[in-house]
Structure formats: structure tokens, C-alpha cells
């Protein structure tokens, strides 16, 4: 457990020093103790401690100097000052200078234990955040797909492998999982990277407009067509065309698109001559394409042309370890965009983010962080800055308000009480919901003294 905390204790009173050293060693920390402030400065020069506990009033080099040195040499660590009644004011000063906490003499050992544990917790959190930030920096390529999930890493690898081949790619996954991001990723890893990447949402236009967008028209093709217009397929030549919400394409359009893919040429509306095009298609949908094919809404031959390679992106709820990473990535982004200095997410807020299901996936997470940065007044996103439906999750966490984790019996008691309430006191119904017989329920009610409620 030694790496759980390196602690430096500085106190010129020998008995107090030994006391502190003893109690902290017993906690399993690696403790260095010294009676001299000057010696403490020398130690801080040579090595980093996680927490420094220092008496304030000492001969020659005092606690304030130790504090100052520590903030300079290892800003990650935390300092707890110990002070007698006479120096209470300087303790307040010390807090202003960045001390984590002050303990008044005579100190209680359990207070020392608690404060040191909290200081260590904060140090650990700072380091974790730092690591996350570094990880994020490393991930910053052209298109930033942030993930540490193994399945996602395999998808990225697959995307990099197919990128240079010109195969059409079909990207599937729930809304907000990053389908468009993957499409860009494929583009930027292909030989077409210097060519255009164009995106079209097939659901955003009616058939006529979509046709005009994709295929363009010749002058006079219809009333109002005053000049020639290149379609997106033509414009994307040499690059990638991203066809979003592909299932929204009408059967007639599907036929036209199929022809473009097969013949590698496009005919403008009203045109007579087919134009050669060199386009890689990446299509995406959050619908079940198999279903659409069964019902006849989507052409099977087009499906096979588009789905040469399938990338299916898992929902965020299936890769929860990405939540902190993505949160900090977007935190940094929005903080910079809004010109604010929000750098952290409190442990409580992070705990809520981690249990939330994110039906809107990464986009929802991004929006939550954006809102958090916007309304946060300090440097940290707290639970108060999260949307209501997320905060309500707090009620569902097992930890009690006082921080205590309940025993199985306590939990069972609470649960039975809740089910009874939900069943309006109807014990037969409650037993049914609980999946036990009435006699067992009755016994439990008696045991937990819940009968009268
Ligand atoms: N792994 C990721 N790393 C960083 N940002 C991501 C990641 N995945 C998604 N995002 C961000 O989440 C948002 C939604 O992503 P994107 O638009 O690619 O999703 P989508 O699957 O196309 O969603 P929809 O189906 O709603 O169109 C974007 O702002 C995107 O930058
Ligand atoms: Mg999209």
C-alpha cells in the first residue's frame, strides 16, 4: 500500500511529530518525518510528496515557507498546516496561499487521518485528470475520435485499413454515436484526403430537391433552372460523399444512385451526356437496414454496393469507460470556445455521468458538457450544473447521503419499503413484485419492523 501515499511531516515539537508519524504509518502511508523546516525544504527539492503536513510556527524556516516551496516544486501535491491557537490567523493566510486545510492544535488523531485521506483523494483526482488530459492530447489527430474502448479501437483500425481501398463503407449505429465522425475519419485516412469530403442528409430533402442536390441539372431542365448546376456527386469527385440517413432515400433515387455506383458516371437532370465521376461513398443510418430490405423499402442490390464494409458503432452505454475521456475532451473544447477556465468535473458529477445511460450517445454527452461549461461559475462542473434528469440519478445510487455504503440488509429493508409504497400497501401485490411468497414477505416485514407502515 506504500504507493498509496507519500507523506512528509514537519513539526519542530518532537512528541507531536512522532505522534503524527506513527498514526500515518499505521494507515499504510510512506511517511518521512523531520523536525526542521530547512530540512523539509531540502527534501522537497529532491523528491515529490503527495501530502505535506507542516506545523506553521517553527524556528528559522516556518510552515509558510514549506507551503510556498511545495506549491512551486510540486503543484500537484497538497499541504495541510497544523497550527496552535495563537497562529490561527496565519492558518487562514496559509489557506489563502493554497493550503488544503488547517488542523488546530491540540489535534485529534481521527481528524488528522480524515484530512490526510481527503487531501490524498484530491491529489489522486488531479493526477487522474492530468492523465486523461494527456491521453486526449495524444488522440488529437485530424479527426478526433476519442475512445479507449477495445471494440472501438478495433473499429478504428478497420477504418484505417479500408480507408485507402476505395471500398464503399456503411456506417451503422444509434443516433449521436459518431457516424459522421467515422466517415470523416475514413476520408482523412484515404488517398482522397486532399479531395473534398461532402455530406448530404438524405432525410432533409424531398425527392425532387435531393435529386437536384445529388445529380445537379442543366440549364433549362425545369422552370427556374437558369444555369447549369453541378450536383454533389460531381463535386465530390476525387473525394468522398457521405450519404447520411440513407434509408430516407426514395426507391427511384435508390435506382439512380445504384447506377452511379455501378457505372461510375452521373447524368445531370436534363442532361444528355453522362459525366465520369470518381467518388467513394460512405453511407450511414441509425435504422435497421435489414428490416428496410425485408419490407422492400430499401433495395438489396444497393445495400450490397454500399455495404462492402460495415462499421457498426456501439452505443455509449456499452463503452462507459469512454465517458470520462469524452467528458474532458469536450470540457476542454468548450472551455476554450467560450473563453472560460473550466478545467474539472467534480467526482460527484463524474459519478453521475458514469451511471447515466445516454440515449443520445456522445452528442448528448457533448451537449451536457457544453451546458455545464456555460453555466459553471468556477473552474469545476459540479452536480448542480448537470441537467435535472441526470441529477435524479443520484437518488438511485447506493451510497447514502452521509457517504455510508449500506449493508445488504439495510438495502433490502429500503427496497421492500419502497415496493410496498409502490403497491399502495398491498402486501399480496408487493410479494408478487418482489418474487417471494406472502409468508416470506410477512417474515421480512416483521424482522425489519416494517409491519406497521
Ligand atoms: N468518439 C468521439 N470522440 C469525440 N467526439 C465524438 C465522438 N463520437 C461522437 N462525437 C461527437 O458527437 C457528436 C455527434 O457525432 P456524429 O454527428 O458523428 O454522430 P452521428 O452518429 O452521425 O449522429 P446522428 O445519427 O444523430 O446523425 C459530434 O459533435 C461528434 O464530434
Ligand atoms: Mg450524423
Q: Can you lay out the helices and strands and say which pair or pack?
A:
Elements: E1 6-10, H1 14-26, E2 30-34, H2 37-46, E3 51-55, H3 63-73, E4 78-83, H4 88-96, E5 101-104, H5 109-139, H6 150-162, E6 169-173, H7 179-188, E7 197-201, H8 207-215, E8 216-217, E9 229-230, H9 232-235, E10 240-244, H10 251-263, E11 265-266, E12 275-276, E13 280-285, H11 289-294, H12 300-306, E14 309-313, H13 322-337, E15 344-345, H14 347-355, H15 361-375, E16 380-381, H16 388-391, H17 393-396, H18 408-422, H19 427-434, H20 438-447
Parallel strand pairs: 1-2, 1-3, 3-4, 4-5, 6-13, 6-14, 7-10, 10-13, 15-16
Antiparallel strand pairs: 8-9, 11-12
Bound molecules: adenosine-5'-triphosphate (ATP) and magnesium ion (MG).
The site of adenosine-5'-triphosphate (ATP) has 18 residues, from helix 7, helix 13 and helix 15.
General description of the model:
With 453 residues, this protein is of the alpha/beta class. The protein is built from 20 helices and 16 strands. The protein has a five-stranded parallel sheet with strand order 2-1-3-4-5, sandwiched between helices. The longest helix is centred in the first third of the chain and has 31 residues, at 109-139. The model has no long low-confidence stretch (mean pLDDT 89). Bound molecules: adenosine-5'-triphosphate (ATP) and magnesium ion. Residues 179-180, 244 line the site of magnesium ion.
Determine the N-to-C terminus distance: 47 Å
Main sheet overview: 5 strands, parallel
**CATH topology call of the largest domain:** Rossmann fold
Ligand inventory: adenosine-5'-triphosphate, magnesium ion
SSE class: alpha/beta
Count of discrete alpha- or pi-helical segments spanning 4 or more residues: 20
Strand portion? 5-15%
| Cα gyration radius (Å) | 32 Å
CATH homology superfamily name of the largest domain: P-loop containing nucleotide triphosphate hydrolases
> How much helix is in the residues?
40-55%
* CATH C-level class of the largest domain: Alpha Beta
Q: Total strand count, please? A: 16
Question: If strands are numbered along the chain, what order do they take across the biggest sheet?
Answer: 2-1-3-4-5
Shape: flat
